[in-house]
Amino acid sequence: MADVQEYKCPNCGGALNFDSGIQKMKCPFCDCEFEMDALKELDADLDKNVEDEFTWEAAGSGQWTEEETQGMKVYVCQSCGGEIVGDETMGATSCPYCDNPVVVKGSFAGDLKPDFIIPFKHDRNAAKEGLNKHLLKKFFLPKVFKDQNHIDEVKGLYVPFWLFDTDVDGQVNYEATKVRHWSDSNYDYTETSYFNVYRAGNIAFDKIPVDGSTQMPDDLMESVEPFDFNEATNFQTAYMAGYLADRYDVDDKQSINRANERVKQSTEDSFKESVVGYTTVTTKNSNIRTFNGKTSYAMYPVWILNTTYNDEKFLFAMNGQTGKFVGNLPLDKGKFALTLAGLTVGLTAIITLLQFLFY
User: Fold this and answer.
1) How many Cα atoms within 13 Å fall on the side-chain side of residue 336?
2) For 302-324, what is each residue's pLDDT tens digit?
3) What CA–CA distance (Å, rounded) separates 162 from 139?
4) By the 8 A CB rule, do 92 and 104 touch?
5) What is the pLDDT of residues 87-129, one digit of tens each?
6) What are phi and psi of 98, to 5 degrees?
7) Considering just the CA atoms, what is the radius of gyration of the chain in Å?
8) What are the DSSP calls for 261-273, one per residue?
9) Residue 357 has what DSSP assignment?
10) 241: which DSSP letter?
């Protein structure tokens, strides 16, 4: 007995039947109709949808010289375990992450030497001003948080980043819709048409950043991006004078998964920009293959403020190159509750008025 090919509806998953009257495949559940050739192309696309393939070369093997590390010390926070690097004249300081005191652990040696560094362009005063602007016009911000903020504790920190270069071959299937509305004297109508859209092509990525510190939240560092790599220079220890430097605890191999996620998402988003003329466009599946992947190591400038409010830590960051300021703020729950109650009362009054007018 011969096997019978069963076709599933791309929209609802129901089994398609051949309708002899229209000479098309038709779904009995959502009434969508499909040309036979379109289903063959869909099958071919799905057959090509193999596993993603990401290939990267290891980071460079540049090492610190004895002259470069002379006088540099590793400081460790006894509270959160964060490690930072500074010179031996730095003296007493506090952790940029949790603001607790740090102590000298020993001489600095052994890490991979950065390939590049972006020097600070904004100073401490700019960081303080950035924080003040960030706090302005925040209606639900507790007043005491703004009045008692320790903005003098802003610290300049070089954050370790792994940078990924790669070329990509990508194939992406999107589900797109076109929605049409019309009315007559009795009803309002909505018609939704579904389309399977296929895109394939090549794209190159240059210097995809992934921060190499577990102490620094990924979402915070991605929010403070972008950094302009055109202003990067070959690494020199002189640029670190007067600043702290975070010691990486996530190496390039451990950062690859995050880089792969960013490559995949960016490829899907980039190809999606060419899918125009539809009401909605969503990604169904994709196949991404990288090649010529290379990794380098850089230090990027960030101003850090860690402050405490009601026993909760709040970490802010400013891009030391561009001045972009980011960070979450506490909520004045009392003010928020009063505002919400006022909105509820107002909405109730509006509904009551409408009921009185129309019923």
Assistant:
1) 8
2) 998 777 666 667 778 899 999 99
3) 38
4) no
5) 554 544 667 766 666 655 554 555 678 889 999 999 888 888 8
6) -125, 0
7) 28
8) HHHHHHHHHHHHT
9) H
10) T
Q: Report pLDDT digits (tens) over 13-47.
A: 667 777 767 777 788 777 777 776 766 666 555 55
**Interatomic CA distance for residues 279 and 179, integer angstroms:** 6
Domain boundaries, given as residue ranges, for the chain: 1-48, 66-169+198-328, 333-359
Reduce the DSSP state of residue 294 to 3 states and report it: strand
Choose among 304, 301, 340: nearest CA to 119: 301
Q: What's the rounded mean pLDDT across residues 280-286? A: 92
CB 131 within 8 A of CB 245: no
**CA neighbor of 178 nearest in space, from 278, 85, 83, 263:** 278
Angstrom distance (rounded) from CA 310 to CA 156: 25
Q: Which amino acid is at 93?
A: T
Residue 110: count other Cβ atoms within 10 Å of its Cβ: 9
What contacts 88, CB < 8 A, 6 or more positions away?
71, 72, 73
Residue 23 DSSP label = T
List Cβ neighbours of 196 (8 Å cut-off, separation of 6 or more): 10, 38, 42, 45, 173, 174, 175, 176, 284
Q: Are 57 and 162 in contact (CB under 8 A)?
A: no
Judged by DSSP in three states, 180 sits in strand
CA dist., res. 148 & res. 252, Å (int): 40
Q: Which residue shows structure tokens 């002189």?
A: 238
Contact between 280 and 193 (Cβ < 8 Å):
no
Q: Are strands 24-26 and 312-319 parallel, antiparallel or unpaired?
A: unpaired
Taking CA 215 as the corner, what is the angle to CA 214 and CA 217, rounded to the nearest 5 degrees? Answer: 80
> CA 20 to CA 293: how far, in whole Å?
52
Q: Quick count: other Cβ atoms within 10 Å of Cβ 234?
A: 8
Of 22, 23, 25, the residue nearest 43 (C-alpha): 25
Residue 268 tokens, joined: 């899907």
Q: Which residue has the higher pLDDT, 282 or 17?
A: 282
State how far the Cα of 229 lies from the Cα of 220, in Å rounded to an integer: 19
Distance CA 102, CA 14 (A): 63
